[in-house]
Amino acid sequence: MPGISDHDIVFMEFKITPSKLKQTPRNVPIYNKANWETMKKEVINLQHTIQEKVNTHTVDELWLEFKTKLNELVSEHIPHKKLTTKNKTPWVTFETRKLMKKRDRLYKKMKKSGNDNMRNKYKQIKHQVQKQPRQSYWQYIEKIVTPKPDEINFQT
């Protein structure tokens, strides 16, 4: 009889969760808020103490003392700010963000000038901005889904 078969459809379910890379927060110095006057005085004092120890200590000891004291001075007199990135969409790369900023600048210029040439440039960049994240998204998904060569196991 047509339509009746003893074969079943092959059905598979996978429970896949992508691995997220978390960036560790990093400290960035804010140089324009630094206390340069006291830091200069401290560096001059450091210079005098190192000059006094030149004859009695080795170069490695002096270098270690200089380096540690300088790092202490930087941490004391220059405020730091913790930077973290929100990586909600890891496929949006630096180049894509750069293109987005360029697109936004061209949009403002186009609105101010009303020039057809500027409008054409804006449309080209806009199409690039639409195209590039799509490509990088699918590359990202492919990278997650395809196993690494060393993880492939053909045993049953």
Q: Would you write up a description of this structure?
A:
- The protein is mostly helical and 156 residues long.
- The chain folds into two domains: 58 residues, no CATH class; 53 residues.
- It contains four helices and two strands, in the order βααβαα.
- Strands 1-2 form a two-stranded antiparallel sheet.
- The protein starts with 25 loop residues before the first strand and ends in an 11-residue tail after the last helix.
- The mean pLDDT is 86.
Name a few traits of the molecule.
mainly alpha, two-stranded antiparallel ribbon, 156 residues, 55% helix, 2 strands
Low-confidence stretches: none
The percentage helix is 55-70%
Q: What radius of gyration results from the CA coordinates?
A: 30 Å
Taken as a percent bin, the fraction of beta residues is 5-15%
Organism: Mytilus edulis
Protein name: Endonuclease/exonuclease/phosphatase domain-containing protein
Helix/strand layout:
Elements: E1 26-29, H1 36-52, H2 59-77, E2 80-83, H3 94-113, H4 116-145
Antiparallel strand pairs: 1-2
Compact summary:
The chain has 156 residues and is mainly α.
